User: What shape does this take?
Amino acid sequence: MNRHKNKTQAWRRSLVPASLIIVLALTGCAVGPDFKTPPPPSAQRYSPRPLPDVTSTAPDAAGAAQHFDVNAYISAQWWTLFRSKQLDTLIEKALKSNPGLAAAQAALKQAQESVYAQQGYFYPTAALSYSPSRQQLAGNMSGNAPGLQGNGTDIAPYQNPNGPPYNEPVIYTFHTAQLTVGYVPDVFGSNRRQVESLQAQSEMQRYQLEAARITLVSNVVAAALQEASLRAQIIATKDVIADNVKSLEISQRQFQLGYIMRVDLAAQESALAAAQQLLPPLEKQFEQTRDLIRVLVGNTPDEDVSETFELSDLHLPVQLPLSLPAQLVRQRPDVLAAEAQLHAASADVGVAVAARLPQFSINGAIGGEATVFNQMFQPGGPFWSLVGNVTQPIFDGNTLLHRERAADQALVQAAAQYRSTVLTALQNVADTLHAIQTDANALVAAANAEQAAKRALDLTRRQNELGYVNYLALLNAEQTYQQAAIALVQARAMRFGDTAALFQALGGGWWNDKEMVAQP
Assistant: This one.
């Protein structure tokens, strides 16, 4: 009875240091700075002077006035505002099959798994082991023999009975089974800060995924608009070339009849050559744009896509959202990713600080040993141990000190990068707003020029029919009109493109997509 009581008292005494360590772990604090979300920018608008709320109106199919509304809803599927089924289908394909987006999704999952792995250090580790052995113990090492077993067997050396006195070797089988448990109390919050850092990095990957998605959609829209613009420019350029060919044919006949000089014929030949030079670059751009579209949807260059685009199939959104600068920093994925990176750098400072403080650990083991398997936990076989440890770094060549200082500077760097990202985001929106305003004015000028060239062409055509001007004048008027038409196509495409750029600059509306927001 007394023996059992003594064992119980010894067990309780052994729990005292472990209990102290656990208490320290539960009441410990996380050293290092606590992260706070940076304050929003003080800017109230995107220019020194207020920008107009409405753009100019042009006499063109894409010339409607666009209105800016700070309270407007930004749809996560903003590209549907162009009302093009071909564009909607193409973007759907890209979102499903683009390898860059798949890589960003894998990077997010990898970051999340790293968080889960680090969270495992909050818990004790436990391991079971079983070690059977067959060995021969030298007779002159008799003090290391297992001794008396629970089944009454005595594993001990015995003296040679037939000759000189020496101990015979001992041959025996031995079984050891044990459960080991280890625990590292997070007294100063080192693990909490590491988990915090990894969680922030996971958030950064999430926002980078959203940025990759928005960039992909914007690239598809830009490629579609580029194709539509190039298609219209190629048609207009071919018309210009055809007009120049007719002009040259007339000039050649006039030269043969002596109506014009050779220098006049050379001038017309030069005009045709100049017009012909415009076509190959446009055709190259067109084919490269089609190659880009195939790659964006995950196709190889020989796998064509059925969707084709013309500017006449697209509609210009007239109600445009406009987020205030304070809202913008909570919407843009690149700004939120920079904020998450700042958060991670802040937590890394705490990790570096905790590394210079005492490190605690506790390890325990319980098991049994015997020469017979089923005797390991019989009387005489069981064993246990409980060990606590505290380590305080004393000298390490200032390695930990400099790591802490490096973490401090990384935090300073992340803060500067965050401010730079915010400024870039504000600049993107400001540039796009100015572009949309000037695009509307440029379209007005291009539409007026196209209409003026069209009126001149109509008048010249009637004069030619009445015999007041020759056919060469008519062809010159047609060339002028075709060039004005090309400029109008470019102005239309620029207006569509900068409208799409505004949705991208404002963050793409990803926060209004319930499926995206629901992702961890």
